[in-house]
């Protein structure tokens, strides 16, 4: 049974990596067209990801070109990732997104992926979005309140101002952690806050190699053992301090 689960996970990861080679074509004229294109191009397989992305209109969180499959600026040297990367993140974390799961979304930006995650953990789950730019914290809360205020009111979704590199111990351990900016290495503080059996996905700088940033999956087997899998090459903004982020020129 365990080997079958391993084979299924390997197959799913291979499918996602292959699908992302076509994913930049997953545009639409509406949210439903965008989600349909992502599914048609194989970025995700299951109905749970489909239903979450369909329920959360990207236009509520992306001020320009919301249905174009490309990153868009949201100000303060921050971007909202391309839709195919959000879909891939949800698919990769899907086995850990169950009713009652605790989830941490680091670099939650305008709040889009955080809201999708909250849709997938049920009434007993908690998703914490942590963002270090206070203006983006306020923006994301306002975005969520457009059509999903019940998630904030019910405590399923929390948007916190803080340094994502430190995680958010108050709601740990987390069954799933998503990091939306590139770290120099996998942060130990985040591994410590991951539940045994939990999964983290994040972009990591590849130590100056020609491969650039790599998208990495980290599965916590026990308190002393983690398994790390290199998934694909990516391009993300750096996981850094507020001063470094907003001090750079646009």
UniProtKB/TrEMBL annotation:
It catalyses: [protein]-L-isoaspartate + S-adenosyl-L-methionine = [protein]-L-isoaspartate alpha-methyl ester + S-adenosyl-L-homocysteine. One of its GO terms (cellular component) is cytoplasm. Its main location: cytoplasm. InterPro entries: PCMT, SAM-dependent_MTases_sf. GO terms for biological process: methylation. Keywords: Cytoplasm, Methyltransferase, S-adenosyl-L-methionine, Transferase. The keyword Cell wall biogenesis/degradation does not apply. The keyword Methyltransferase applies. GO terms for molecular function: protein-L-isoaspartate (D-aspartate) O-methyltransferase activity. Its EC number is 2.1.1.77. It is found in: Cytoplasm. It comes from the Eukaryota. CDD domains: AdoMet_MTases. Belongs to the methyltransferase superfamily. L-isoaspartyl/D-aspartyl protein methyltransferase family. PANTHER family: PROTEIN-L-ISOASPARTATE O-METHYLTRANSFERASE (PTHR11579), PROTEIN-L-ISOASPARTATE(D-ASPARTATE) O-METHYLTRANSFERASE (PTHR11579:SF0). This is Protein-L-isoaspartate(D-aspartate) O-methyltransferase. The lineage of its organism: Eukaryota, Metazoa, Ecdysozoa, Nematoda, Chromadorea.
């Amino acid at each position: 049974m365990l080997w079958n689960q391993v084979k299924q996970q390997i197959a799913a990861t291979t499918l996602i990596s292959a699908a992302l080679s076509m994913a930049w074509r997953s545009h639409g004229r509406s949210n439903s067209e965008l989600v349909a294109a992502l599914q048609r191009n194989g970025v995700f397989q299951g109905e749970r990801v489909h239903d979450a992305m369909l329920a959360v209109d990207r236009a509520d969180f992306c001020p320009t070109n919301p249905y174009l499959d490309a990153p868009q600026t949201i100000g303060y040297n921050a971007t909202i990732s391309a839709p195919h990367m959000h879909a891939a993140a949800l698919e990769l974390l899907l086995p850990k997104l169950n009713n009652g799961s605790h989830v941490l979304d680091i670099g939650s930006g305008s709040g889009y992926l955080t809201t999708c995650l909250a849709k997938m953990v049920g009434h007993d789950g908690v998703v914490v979005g942590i963002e270090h730019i206070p203006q983006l914290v306020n923006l994301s809360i306002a975005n969520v309140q457009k059509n999903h205020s019940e998630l904030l009111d019910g405590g399923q979704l929390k948007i916190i101002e803080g340094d994502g590199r430190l995680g958010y111990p108050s709601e740990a351990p987390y069954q799933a952690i998503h990091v939306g900016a590139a770290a120099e290495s996998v942060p130990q503080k985040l591994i410590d806050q991951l539940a045994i059996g939990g999964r983290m996905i994040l972009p990591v700088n590849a130590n100056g190699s020609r491969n650039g940033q790599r998208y990495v999956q980290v599965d916590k087997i026990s308190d002393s053992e983690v398994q790390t899998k290199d998934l694909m090459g990516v391009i993300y903004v750096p996981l850094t301090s507020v001063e470094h982020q907003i001090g750079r020129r646009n």
